[in-house]
Amino acid sequence: MKSFMKKDDTQNDQKETGSDLQVPFFFLGWAGVGWASLVTSWHLFSDHDGGLDPGPALLPIITLVVLTIGSLGLTVKPILKIISAGFLFKLKIEPNWLPIFFFVSVVVFPMAMSIIGYIAATFVFVFAWGVLFNPQVSKRPYHIFVVAFVAAIITTSIIYVGFDLVIGARLPK
């Protein structure tokens, strides 16, 4: 099959393979942070103050298992491409900085919550990503900032009411 492929097709496959691996590696990294957090959170496994929850660690464990298995599943196709090419080409990965910044912000978010509190950290997180994810921010910045501001207030309020007031989760003040 290699003999029928043009040189350009091989180069496109190389770029696609590198791009295809960025997504599962991003989610595997995110799962790794989650597993590290879960392992170091002793209170999730304690018996006290569990309330009606069947186990505070149950939902994070289910989520992390699904995230890890899904991420590993996403690596199958790119790895099979690499194997079928016989390791003859160099893997060229051009980083997409937005997921990298998102990953860093997810890691920094819990630290920010402990320093400035849940409400302020969540507002900043939602507002910043509301602005960054909008492709028209350079064309209509005032409009985008207002929409992101309102969305951050609404999102933070909904999450706060749902977690703090309804189910009684202890959020950093």
Can you characterise this structure?
This protein is mostly helical. The protein has 2 domains: 1-95; 96-173, no CATH class. Helix content is 69%, strand content 0%. The chain is built from 6 helices and no strands. It has helices at residues 7-39, 58-74, 76-84, 97-116, 118-132, 141-166. Helix 5 (118-132) packs antiparallel against helix 6. The longest helix has 33 residues, at 7-39. The chain is flat and about 55 Å long. The termini are far apart. Residues 1-10 have low confidence and may be disordered.
| Domains, number | 2
Q: Give the SSE order as H and E letters.
A: HHHHHH
- Described by the principal axes of the CA atoms, the overall outline is flat
- Largest sheet properties: none
Mean pLDDT: 78
The tally of helices reads 6
Q: Into which percentage range does the β-strand content fall? A: under 5%
Could you tell me how far the N terminus lies from the C terminus, measured between alpha carbons in angstroms?
61 Å
State the low-pLDDT regions, or none. Answer: 1-10
The radius of gyration over CA amounts to 21 Å
Overall number of strands: 0
Structural class: mainly alpha
The share of residues in helices is 55-70%
In terms of quaternary structure, the protein is single chain
